Every structure is written in C-alpha cells, then in structure tokens.
C-alpha cells in the first residue's frame, strides 16, 4: 500500500484511525516511537490467534 492508498484508507476507516490515535497517545504518555512499535509487535503476537478465529467465525 503506497502513501496515497494509506491516506484514503485512513480517511475512511475509523478502526485504523483508532489504532493511530492509540499509538500517538502512547507517545504522549512518554513512550518513544521505538517502544510504541515494540508494544504493537507484542500486541500482534498476543492477538493473532484470536483474530484468526474471529475471521473464520469460530469466536
């Protein structure tokens, strides 16, 4: 996804906006951008299986 496609997606997707808002909120709380991305990686690892189940309709 290029920058223009991302901007269009961001403009039309509240859930993506919430992710970005959460990331900026973490920086406002004192986390460095590197720490925010590390937290995002940890969140991905800890939620992947549940999200997979949801997408299959198992949840």
Mean pLDDT value: 95
Strand content: under 5%
**Order of SSEs:** HHH
Distance between the termini: 29 Å
DSSP strand tally: 0
What's the number of helices?
3
Q: What coarse outline follows from CA principal-axis ratios? A: globular
* Helix-and-strand structural type: mainly alpha
pLDDT < 50 runs, ≥5 residues: none
Share of helix, binned = over 70%
Largest sheet: none
Our Rg estimate from Cα atoms comes to 14 Å
Give a structural overview.
The chain is an all-alpha fold and 59 residues long. The chain has a domain at 32-59. It is 83% helix and 0% strand. It contains three helices and no strands. The longest helix has 24 residues, at 33-56. The N and C termini lie far apart (29 Å). The model has no long low-confidence stretch (mean pLDDT 95).
Could you list some keywords that capture this structure?
single chain, 59 residues, mainly alpha, 3 helices
């Amino acid at each position: 996804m290029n920058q223009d496609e991302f901007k269009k997606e961001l403009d039309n997707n509240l859930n993506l906006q919430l992710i970005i808002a959460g990331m900026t909120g973490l920086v406002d709380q004192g986390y460095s951008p590197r720490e925010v991305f590390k937290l995002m990686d940890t969140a991905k690892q800890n939620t992947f299986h549940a999200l997979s189940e949801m997408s299959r309709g198992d949840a």
